[in-house]
Amino acid sequence: MSTPTDKPAAEPGVCPFTGARAGEGVPETPAAPAATVDATAAAPAARPAPRPKAAGSNEPRKTLLLTGASRGIGHATVKRFEAAGWRVVTCSRHAFPEQCPWGAGPEDHIQVDLSDVDSTVAAIAEVRERLEGGALHALVNNAGISPKGPNRTRMNAIDTALDDWKTVFQVNFFAPIMLARGLAAELTAAHGSIVNVTSIAGGRVHPFAGAAYATSKAALAALTREMAADFGPLGVRVNAIAPGEIDTAILSPGTEKLVAQIPLRRLGTPDEVAKTIYFLCTETSAYVTGSEIHINGGQHV
Questions:
Q1: Domain count, the chain
Q2: What is the pTM for the complete model shown?
Q3: What is the domain range of residue 145?
Q4: 13, 51, 114, 287: most buried, per Cβ within 10 A?
């Protein structure tokens, strides 16, 4: 399983469209997506210019707000929605790298530390300002962190420090509901969709995912059902996806041994996950809410 890692020290920003890091040249081919992690530090950027309408349409472009955008599943999701003509507003701990060729990146990127309540509140205000009173069609809560022990060992319920539990739950559980509540008016205006990214680890003890990460994802799955009931009357759908073993650049050691336990006998790809997220944010899934879709090749059966 390509589980998120613990919150790293400050490092260069990563372009959510190409995967390039600050200080690096832009690759001719987009870099292979890395693992999904992004708990993300603050400082709003300049207010953007009015957004154009979608090509070939009289309707304004739809807007997605995505956390955990720079790697793995998040990276693939940016590309999937952008290819469909959506405006994608990304959230990251890092500033947008200047060398990234994605034209909309600088004005559609927000620095935020989702482990910090005040930073998250400030980011919500910044998103609302950038929407300029407009609608938000989709919110995808993809950011997640999972602390590791020495030599990247799994941290169990006994070993995990209380402060680590608090940080993990702030990023993986509280930030999603803070964003959804803070942007409820904008989501309601669009009859929008919320997608929470949970995990196969939320329903079973996993050999790599830590106890805090797993329980935070189980809580997020339960929260998804509660949100579906509460946001439904507003015309907003809320669903979750639960990825299993996804092939990213930093797979957990030993993942290859799990492939034999997966009925489809292979790892999933970030693009396969991104396509399911897109499905849940479009009219194709207009009568789907309160669901958690397992994307794991049958590993959960």
A1: 1
A2: 0.82
A3: 63-295
A4: 114
